[in-house]
Amino acid sequence: MATSPAPEKVESNGHEQHETKSGTASVHTHDAEDILGLQDLDPALNRKMHLVNNAIDEIGWTPYHTKLFILNGFGYAVDSLVLLLQGVIAGQAFREFGEKGYNNAMTIAGYVGMLIGALFWGLGADIIGRRFAFNVSLLLCSISVIIAGAMPNWPSLGLWIALVGFGAGGNLVLDTTVFLEYLPGSKQWVLTLMAGWWGLGQAVTGFVAWGFLVPERWNCSSVDVCTRQNNMGWRYVMFTSGALVFVMSILRVTVIRLRETPKYLLALGEDAQVVETLQFLASKYNRHCSLTAEKLDACGIVLGTHSKNRFSFAETLVHLRGLFSTSKIALSTSLIWVSWGMMGLAYPLFYVFLPSYLASRGANLDVSPFETWRNYTLTNISSIFGPLLAGWMCNIPLLGRRYTMLIGALMTAAFFFAYTSVRNGAQDVGFSCSIAFCLNIYYGTLYAYTPEVLPSAHRATGNGVAVSCNRVMGILSAVIATVSNTSTSAPLYICGALLVAMGVLSAFFPFEPYGRRSS
Known about the structure:
Elements (H helix, E strand, L loop, with lengths): L14 E6 L2 E6 L4 E2 L8 H17 L3 H34 L8 H23 L2 H19 L5 H16 L1 H10 L9 H4 L2 H17 L20 H22 L7 H7 L2 H14 L8 H5 L15 H10 L4 H34 L8 H14 L2 H9 L6 H20 L5 H28 L6 H25 L6 H18 L8 E2 L2
Parallel strand pairs: 3-4
Antiparallel strand pairs: 1-2
Helix pairs in contact: 1-10, 1-11, 2-3, 2-5, 2-6, 2-8, 2-9, 3-4, 3-5, 3-6, 3-19, 4-5, 4-6, 4-9, 6-18, 6-19, 8-9, 8-15, 10-11, 14-19, 14-20, 15-18, 16-18, 17-18, 17-20
């Protein structure tokens, strides 16, 4: 293996100046720290990663990144839209099909599909690359949503809802991974901001449901008189949502011709393609990029990021072992997966038990269908702004990512506990909006933090397992709702306690990405 080249000399202030047609650009290079740079990983990969991060910092933010922010945001929006879609249409669909079968089947079908999708697309993105999964998953999801809207019975609807979840399940994994692997270090906080698209997807679901699930001509009121002809509302919700996702999927492959991410190519050993990709960006947007294939070659050969046969079980083991390669990385991976799992149980379980609990305590929430979907939409609109605040907070040195999550989780827990005192509709919508806002401070930061601290060669796998932990607990919450007494207060306080635990846990995460670049 070749020895590491001597560090390049830089100006005392850690800046280099480069001339462009638009003037002189001052760029931070060579003085920034990589998050995993001090871990006992492959030394050649560490040195190459540092050079690639320097090159990305030299290029800086470009219109390409703006396009990525929007088009990757589509995936975030679709993930949240689909997650809520099955719950929105399930009641009317179950009524139309004679209320025969398991009434929580759509929730479980959706979560099972998203669980398998997160694992499949996550691991697949580390094996065959980010580009294919990025381009295909959203298209598959859109087609499945439209077909699901035409289903004639409860079991077939469940099958297609699961396929919808499968297609959407990889978006949360891939969108953060792809965007992060092009981001300059000083702009990594934008990854937290991108979670605002999650809230936008929820809001779109609310608006579509508000439009189609309120008119009586499209929504039957009783199972005895319910037919396809007088109950088209839920189908219109599916057709409209599917068409919207289809447009997004087409835009993803036409507005931007995604190139394979440089950090994936680096782990694959394709140094020439790494340089070609970054030089293409630099040339297209008139930026400086000093990275050459010779500099990467001088760092040595990257070993251990893939097996001899990439389409084998051994390849899966390589990526899983890579997430536990040192004690510190193993601790980080474990705490992240536990946090995703706890959130997957706490949030849906809270809303599963809440209606029965409030009714048993004398709350008067008698609202019309119009008010129900209006309030639903207002709550989801509120969730857009949590990540916007989180994006600002996580870039404050005193807070960083970890304490932003701590504050968001504790604020959400406080509103969870306070929610048990709700007695009327106005209080209900007020607390719902507050919870949606605060929860997305935590959730949005966790979304971004997860890929930031995972090793690049195994990032999509680690991210996929994290999301799958969330989905497993979502399935569990639906089962608990079926077999448990929903009028007791114990589960609600358990959910609040889980949020407190998640907040405290985030303060003990071993890595703080603020001021450091993803490895």
